[in-house]
Amino acid sequence: MSNHTDIPFLDLVTPHTELEQELTEVFQKALRTGRFIGGPMVEEFEQAFAD
């Protein structure tokens, strides 16, 4: 006797689809400027996160 239940994997793509363009732009800007720590992008993120 076998009860087989398929459990789907966690979908990590769909929830981030609407943020893809914004995330890509910010990541590319960080790569181009080399500003991974500190700087205006980090300040902007920290302020948005605090709000």
Describe the structure.
With 51 residues, the protein is an all-alpha fold. The chain has one domain (12-50). It has helices at 20-33, 39-50. The mean pLDDT is 88.
Helix tally equals 2
Assembly type of the shown chains?
single chain
Residue share in helix: 40-55%
Number of strands: 0
Characterize the overall form: elongated
Main beta-sheet strand count, sense and barrel state = none
What is the N-to-C order of secondary-structure elements (H for helix, E for strand)? HH
Model regions low in confidence, pLDDT < 50 over at least 5 residues: none
Structural class: mainly alpha
- The N- and C-terminal alpha carbons lie at a distance of 55 Å
Draw up the topology in text:
Layout: H1 20-33, H2 39-50
Quick description:
With 51 residues, the chain is mainly α. It has two helices and no strands.
Which characteristics define this entry?
2 helices, mainly alpha, elongated, 51 residues
